[in-house]
TrEMBL record, chain A:
Species this protein is from: Enterovirga rhinocerotis
Protein's UniProt name: Putative ABC transport system ATP-binding protein
Main location group: membrane
Superkingdom assignment: Bacteria
PANTHER family named among the record's database cross-references: ATP-BINDING CASSETTE SUB-FAMILY B MEMBER 10, MITOCHONDRIAL, ATP-DEPENDENT PERMEASE MDL1, MITOCHONDRIAL
UniProtKB/TrEMBL annotation, chain B:
Protein name (record): Cyclic nucleotide-binding protein
Highest rank taxon of the organism: Bacteria
PROSITE patterns: CNMP_BINDING_2, CNMP_BINDING_3
Matching SMART domains: cNMP
Molecular functions (GO terms): DNA-binding transcription factor activity
Length: 926, 148
């Protein structure tokens, strides 16, 4: 990135800037005219100087420059004009003035729009460039980069720079020429007044910037402090668990409070100084009119200046301070923005970034990574400069399954990262086949090597999105370029943005080996299944929504499964387990509101408590005369809740689980209940009634057992259901997807669609029994893989937090396998798992890489025998060891005493230790 | 049958006798009323203890596994509390309980029950008193037996 902001702006927006320049210059004569006309109107038309000496007409639309005496005097005629009378001259000149005002206004508008567009385009370019830089951070630099800081820089710090870019060149030019024109005009009218104005302008220009220098230093401090502040806040948010576990909120508060004080301090200093400067600036600007009135008036009285000239000079002077003020502001902004820009550029310093490669270079050395993996005299250092790997030569043939046996230090992981090209600072040589590892292009590395580290990185999106992330390296196919797309491409070209569209197809099916997206899903599911995530994905599928576009035909099959489930339940005499949705019957196990709507609400206005504010909903309740009764039920519920939950501390888990009301609402409801015992309805406010109305909507008689919902009332609710439906269907968007036994409810989870009703929770083990019957139907119709496909749509949440650590780790591993790399490096990715699962997953990985290579870091040699080859460390030196104990009489070469002993339990030496009291227990614990 | 009738039943259980009505109502409200068909098991010997049951209506047998098969050790009727020892001592079920006829029971979840005990000392004392009196009875029985 260019060091100087101005050079950067000039390089990328030269053409636009020049066009605007030209217009600014072209507009100057108009500006001059609008200054000169008032003088003419007063002098020639009103005072009638043009008609002196008995002339009846005067020239109009003529143009002449009157040179002041100090320039030799006289005048130069430019346009002749036409002869008109006095009144015509007045109106003519006045309309001409109006015309110039309009022209000036229009030119200003055009320039502003162009400037805005220019600034926005440059900001887009700048942001995109910075983001591209961020993508190039080296693994080493990443250790010191805080995500929130980078985000603040790209989003917030660039904003004022972008705002300034449009003004960078044009503003000083436009304002400067305007000020110069005005000043020239004054000078032409009166030398002394002109010099006076120039002197004050000069003073402003010299004093103000000096005063502002201190401001810049403070501005720089402020920028750094707020950037760190943003970084710190996000760190605390990300580490909230640690904060809560150790209850260090007070410390964090103090820390943030301290930062806020520091920020306030800087900002307050800035304010004080800023307003002093402003005060001085205003003072100087307002001194000038004083001189003009006094000195100008004196000249006019003494006849050295005519009244018209004085009016015009004062008018011209009015034009002078605004551009000057803006010019000074611009200068301030320039320095300010340059500071910001320098800080931004420093953040993305070249030494923190990977080298850019052009497209052809990315595939440098692209051929399967096979042949001899030769590591020669490898030497690395840890972060503190002490040696980690101290040399040693190893050579083995790929493809193969290679274990790196850890010696308890970071050396094994270090070697794994080097092989995965995650670490490039090492001495010695690593070659595969005849290619240096360090010489491979990024594209080749991305395609042919995969690395699964200890911390799985998941992006928000679905499980599928995360699994196929590695297949999205290049756009495979463009989208159709309609008009909108064309426009996007044109803009992208102008701003150095990518021409690729996210809407295009990106998934590299060839590399995954699947022929289409359905096959790809199937392949993903096979991998997940074998990695032990199949049941989880199945469960996600049951609670997921069906995407009819992705899985056409599934809707019909689910509806059929629904019917079969019903039949099977009836056949087995278990139909009581589920109370099906029936248009003509009240569902006792569903809530009151579900019974009223008889469908899944899709609009937020009909979900949760918001529904009591829905005008249509309320109208139906009123018309059916249900409102009062429901409010009465609300009172009964509130009464019971305040009675039985009283004395339970706020935030107690029982509240969340059982109470109709939130813990902190309990007191409010107690007050409402008290008011309801007042005379008639008078005691309750409108708001009270609304809140009470919301309570019975969630009521289910068999579950809550308050005995407030009898048969007669159910009948009335059933009547209201029809009315409700009619009301909602009249609207463009009903906001509810009504239940239909023969149609899928898209807004409802798959399992709800299968059950199509509510589980009768008052039957012992109802859910387990239903699950068993459901599983039979699913098996009979062979639906499980389709359900698992729905599960692939499960959203993983920010950073995958909606998944467990185990699920995240498996998604991470499967993602690496999906792109079928030549070399899969696994380093600590199995750390979250217990011993049994580690064994299973190791086998899974060994099998899944097929004919490709697997390099895996092993914390101990328990699973060493499963590998074909192994590398170990001897006093920091790499050595190739034989993974199979039978062939190696003494596998205990590990440098660490502890490791050696631990291994004793597993590798056949345990017999020797049988007699020792600790040995068998340790074995059991393992 | 509503919450009120369940509270009446709970009041008949010796362990809950000393607890004030609004707490009993909370206990009832946070429990589930469920129905077992004849022959359906409440829980089996060796299962993890996850809940206690109060029989509101119906009958259930307590069975012990032995070498020759199961044999019945007790019969539970209306207002009987069963399974409470398991959730208090965190041990697996010591016996199997099976409904003899259609039986309606109140299922008191272990976690909810322990939450209530932690929250309301009065409830804990009532439970302790009941346990102490059981211990006393057992001691007395032992004494009587050793005296023989």
């Amino acid at each position: 990135m260019t060091k100087s902001l101005f050079r950067y702006i000039w390089r990328h927006s030269r053409r636009d800037q020049l066009i605007i320049f030209a217009v600014v210059l072209g507009s100057l004569p108009f500006f001059y005219m609008s200054l000169d006309l008032p003088r003419k109107i007063v002098n020639e038309a009103i005072q009638g100087r043009a008609f002196e000496d008995g002339r009846m007409t005067a020239p109009f639309l003529d143009f002449a420059i009157h040179w002041p005496s100090w320039l030799g005097g006289g005048e130069t005629q430019i346009v002749e004009g036409v002869q008109v009378g006095r009144l015509e001259l007045l109106f003519g000149l006045s309309f001409l003035f109006l015309f110039f005002v309009l022209v000036n206004g229009f030119i200003k508008y055009w320039i502003n729009v162009q400037k805005g567009a220019l600034g926005e385009r440059m900001m887009r370019r700048l942001r995109f460039e910075l983001f591209s830089y961020a993508l190039r951070f080296t693994p080493e630099a990443l250790r010191n980069v805080r995500s929130a800081e980078a985000a603040t820089i790209i989003k917030d710090e660039v904003e004022p720079i972008g705002g300034f870019i449009g003004d960078a060149y044009i503003q000083p030019l436009m304002l400067g020429t305007q000020a110069a024109t005005a000043l020239t005009f004054i000078l032409i009218q009166s030398l002394w007044l002109g010099l006076l104005a120039a002197a004050i302008v000069g003073a402003q220009f010299i004093i103000i910037p000096r005063l502002r220098r201190q401001l810049l230093v403070l501005g720089r401090q402020r920028q750094l402090a707020s950037r760190e502040f943003a970084g710190r806040v996000s760190e605390v948010i990300d580490g909230m668990e640690a904060v809560q576990v150790h209850d260090t909120a007070a410390w964090e508060r103090a820390e943030i409070g301290g930062r806020l004080h520091h920020l306030f301090d800087i900002r307050f200093k800035i304010y004080k100084r800023k307003f002093i400067v402003k005060f001085l600036n205003n003072l100087l600007a307002q001194m000038t009119p004083f001189f003009f009135y006094a000195v100008g008036g004196y000249f006019a009285l003494s006849g050295k200046l005519d009244i018209g000239q004085l009016v015009a000079v004062i008018a011209a002077y009015r034009e002078l301070p605004p551009p000057l003020k803006e010019l000074i502001d611009w200068d301030q902004q320039r320095l300010d923005v340059q500071v910001k820009y320098d800080q931004v550029v420093a953040y993305f310093a070249p030494e923190r970034l990977r080298v850019v490669e052009d497209a052809a270079d990315e595939d440098r050395g692209d051929a399967p990574l096979e042949g001899a993996l030769a590591i020669k005299a490898l030497a690395t250092f840890d972060g503190h400069g002490s040696p980690l790997i101290r040399g040693g030569d190893v050579s083995l043939d790929l493809p193969s399954r290679v274990a790196i046996l850890s010696d308890g230090t970071a050396a094994a992981s270090n070697l794994a990262r080097i092989l995965a090209r995650r670490d490039e600072s090492y001495g010695g040589e690593v070659t595969i086949g005849d290619r240096h590892l360090s010489a491979l292009g990024h594209g080749t590395v991305g395609r042919r090597i995969a690395y699964a580290g200890p911390e799985p990185i998941l992006f928000p999106g679905t499980i599928r999105d995360n699994l196929i992330y590695g297949l999205r390296q290049r756009q495979i196919e463009d989208i159709e370029a309609d008009e909108e797309e064309q426009r996007r491409i044109v803009e992208a070209k102008r701003t150095g943005n990518p021409l690729d569209s996210v809407a295009g197809s990106w998934i590299d099916l060839d590399r995954s080996g699947a022929k289409d997206h359905v096959a790809l899903d199937a392949a993903l599911l096979i991998l997940l299944d074998r990695a032990g995530l199949g049941d989880d994905v199945y469960r996600f599928g049951l609670t997921g929504l069906i995407d009819p576009e992705r899985q056409p035909g599934l809707a019909e099959r689910v509806v059929e499964a629904r019917h079969r489930l019903r039949e099977r339940l009836e056949r087995e005499g278990k139909s009581e387990l589920v109370e099906s949705f029936d248009q003509d019957a009240y569902n006792a196990h569903a809530t009151v509101v579900e019974n009223l709507l008889f469908g899944m609400p899709t609009s937020p206005a009909l979900k949760g408590r918001a529904i009591v504010e829905h005008a249509g909903f309320r109208a139906v309740l009123d018309q059916e005369k249900l409102t009062d009764d429901l409010v009465r039920m609300g009172v009964a519920i509130a009464e019971t809740m305040t009675d039985i939950f009283e004395g339970l501390p706020q935030g107690h888990p029982l509240f969340e689980q059982f109470a109709f009301v939130h813990a902190d609402e309990l007191d409010e409801f107690a007050a409402i209940v008290k008011r309801s015992h007042g005379k008639g309805r008078g005691g309750l406010t409108r708001d009270d009634r609304e809140r009470l109305l919301a309570l019975p909507l969630e009521y289910i008689e068999p579950r809550h057992r308050l005995g407030i919902l009898d048969e007669a009332f159910r009948e009335r609710l059933l009547q209201a259901r029809k009315h409700m439906r009619a009301m909602l269907e009249e609207r463009d968007d009903p906001g509810v997807e009504f239940y239909d036994p023969d149609r899928l409810t898209l807004a409802a989870p798959l399992q709800n669609n299968l059950i199509f009703g509510r589980v009768n929770a008052s039957i012992a083990d109802a859910r387990e029994q239903l699950r068993a019957v459901g599983a039979e139907v699913v098996a009979e119709m062979d639906l499980s893989s389709e359900i698992e496909r729905v599960g692939l749509d499960h959203a993983v949440g920010p950073a995958g937090r909606r998944l467990t650590a185990h699920q995240r780790a498996i998604v991470n591993l499967v993602r690496c396998l999906v792109k079928r790399p030549d070399l899969l490096v696994v380093d600590g990715a199995l750390a979250p798992f217990g011993e049994k699962r580690v064994a299973e997953l190791t086998d899974f990985l060994l099998e899944s890489v097929g004919t490709h290579s697997l390099v895996m870091v092993l914390p101990n040699d328990r699973h060493l025998a499963r590998f074909e080859k192994a590398i170990a460390f001897e006093d920091g030196h790499l050595v190739a060891i034989e993974p199979h104990p039978s062939a190696a009489p003494e596998p205990r070469e590990a440098p660490s005493e502890d490791d050696g002993e631990e291994r004793g339990g597993e590798d056949g030496l345990s017999e020797a230790k049988e007699g020792q009291p600790g040995a068998s227990r340790r074995q059991a614990a393992e | 049958m509503t919450l009120e009738t369940e509270v009446q039943s709970l009041r008949q259980v010796p362990m809950f006798r000393g607890i004030e009505p609004s707490r009993l109502k909370l206990l009832a409200f946070t429990s589930e009323r469920i129905r077992f068909t004849a022959g359906q098991t409440f829980f089996s010997q060796g299962d993890a203890a996850d809940a206690a049951y109060v029989i509101l209506d119906g009958r259930a047998d307590v069975l012990l596994d032995a070498a020759g098969g199961q044999f019945k050790v007790a019969e539970l009727g209306r207002n009987a509390l069963v399974g409470e020892m398991g959730i208090l001592s965190e041990t697996p079920r010591s016996a199997t309980v099976v409904a003899v006829e259609q039986t309606i029971a109140l299922r008191i979840d272990k976690r909810v029950f322990l939450d209530l005990l932690t929250q309301f000392p009065q409830m804990s004392i009532a439970v302790m008193r009941e346990l102490a009196s059981r211990l006393e009875r057992t001691n007395a029985q032992l004494l009587a037996r050793s005296g023989q």
